[in-house]
Amino acid sequence: MLKSYFKIAWRNLIKRKVFTTINILGLSIGFGSAILIYLFLGYHYSFDDFHPNEDLIYRMATEEHTDVVVYSASVPPAFAKVFREEYAYTDKVAKIVGQSGLVLDIEQNGNTNKFKRDVLFTEEDFFKIFNFPLLDGSNAVSLSAPNTAVITQNEAIQLFGHTDVVGKTFVLENDKIIEITGVLKNIPQTSFLEGSIFIAFKNLEDFSDFAYGENWGGITTNLQCFALLKPNQDIAQIENVLLELPKKHRPNSMNTHVYKMQPLSEIHLNHDYGGLDPVFLIVFGIIGLFLLVIASINFINISTAQAFYRSKEIGIRKVLGGFKKQLFWQFLSETFLISLFAIALGFGMAILFLPSFNALFEIQLTLESLLSFQFFGFLIALLILVSLLSGAYPGLLLSKIVPILALKGKLSHNDTGGATTRKFLVVAQFVISISLIVATLVISRQIKYATQSDLGFDKESIVMLEIPETIDSEKFYDLKERLKQVAGVQKVSGCLTSPGGANTFWDTTVKYNNRPEREEFSISIKIGDEDYLNAFNIPLAAGRNFFKNDSITEMLVNEKFVEKVGADSAEDILGRAIAVNGERIKATIVGVVKNFHDGSFTEEIKPVFIAPYVRWYNELGIKINHLNTKATMEQLEKEWSQTFSKQIFDYRFLDESVAEQYETEQRYLSLSKVFSGLAIFIGCLGLYGLILFFVSHRTKEIGIRKVLGSSIGNILTLLSTDFLKLIAIAGIVATPASWYIMDQWLQGYTYRTEIGWWVFALAIGSVMLITLLTISYQTLKAASANPIKSLRTE
């Protein structure tokens, strides 16, 4: 019986090649997208699941409760020692501190090669908490002695050309000779850990007194602290005990810090602490489901439309003793056969587009990911689900046809049923397509708004050059003057960071006007010299710029600070005293600058102060003439290298750094464009199939209308009107739904664009236009046909 089902199903599919092709192509695109999305979701949900004690590993984090809650995936440097020695909750506690852009000198064959690398200074217990084994498979990583390091397999090949490097050395920052004591297997991509060179923690003392020391007064985001807990610990109880730490170790502070314990499994998918927003994955999964639903709708619509033409077949089957159950399984087997072909084609599509998918999301999904029992279980479940979703309703509908009416040829399209359902399903397709187009337009508009709006400072043609060493005032100003003489250079400023861009925040406490208590808000530090405002084109709102100085005696603040302290105007705070950084820095406010965006548009503009301090200058902001960038950069490198002869020249453009803040949104946009296009394409395939049926059904009607004087335009309007009405209904449904969803998405931005009416008009109009183009070929062909031939059509 089963063999018979599939044999008849095959014959029916071959007989109706066009509609079979439409169904297979639509479903294959849906299956291919679902496979890629499955791999993508599996990748992100598998982060850090390869550690034996993953459920006992926690990262220590901090919440700062002031006027707002600020989340940091770090703790003060002294936290680890106290948590390790004063509490009995853990087996191991370890810190790692990242330092970016350090220079490594490696001597080979009489030549010295320089490399610039990010380095992690690591306490020895770190490799006892986590499962990052050596090449020999053991976990015997040794970083107890100073001037030792372990590196990954790939890093060894890049630095030395091979992995047999144990005992070899490199010079760190032209000073320390570091011996390699082990080679690690490559860190899995599904790990929170982004590093390939790990150096003994003792060596951090040469690079960061703050992070190396036992300081409770602040936090550096470069530091992370991990703990391996003993079994059966109550996390809520531990966090409650940790509430006492600020009071005990920072008795004179405002004690705004609350220490939290973040499970290892949540590090990758916790947006508050810098991880991926899980909503992104949910949306991704829903879009994949939408594509399969649209493809299934195509199948249902085409199958129910074919019911009229298969009525005699069904009538004969019933007269010869066929039962409804047998007919139902016959049509379901046809659906299964189509789905089987489609899933094989979709699998091939997924493999074909996997490299492009990886490039879009900067990940490394591999074909090996497809060779697992879980994946094949997913494919089988998908095949069964889609077969049932697509075939159950048409099967039930077709099995209910009355055999007598079918054999007498008295069945109409209304008798075969499904007309109302088809309209409903077509509307559902259009609702999804319109919603995806609206999402694409809104995301695109918000990114454009964020990247092209006035940020309050100049970011165009500004090169940010690293100052890799702490230099004195004389050396700094000598370098600055030489850079200003370079042809093409317009302005130069030394600074801690640029006014805006990713990872440029350093917040601290503030006291204003000798008030007895510190302010409830924190203030963002923007250290810069006397040319900072000029180089970045930040306008003054009141007062003056500070004078050239090697120490901080004068400060500038922004308008947000004026608002936060409750002053009536910017002029009212000029000459007032200000103390920051635990009152270690005291100065006078001499000017107020206009507000500028010191972060992304997702965050509110913060209170900011700007002051000069040469020892804290990490970068040079250089405004250049973009007409001869290459020659200017070559000359800048020459002058810079005279001061930092043992360093590697490295630079970035400020506008690119600002754009990096919106990488996730850019991927959202790319995702929306791709899947909107796929949704519309699959929907148009179904429309094309339906219009084939409708045109063939109304061939004689078209001939009569032409004989009676109807023009091609009249006939085209007649055949298109029903579909355009369905699009209009879909637009009415999609508009409020998509507006609500995108408005909620925009709430994540403090500064956001508006969703104009034209967005919905453009989305609906686009779908209408694409639909007209899809159905125009068949309708024009039918309308242009010889009416004599049309009238002869039975």
UniProtKB/TrEMBL annotation:
Keywords: Cell membrane, Membrane, Transmembrane, Transmembrane helix. GO terms for cellular component: plasma membrane. InterPro entries: ABC3_permease_C, MacB_PCD, Macrolide_Exporter_MacB. It comes from the Bacteria. The keyword Hydrolase does not apply. Its main location: membrane. This is ABC-type antimicrobial peptide transport system permease subunit.
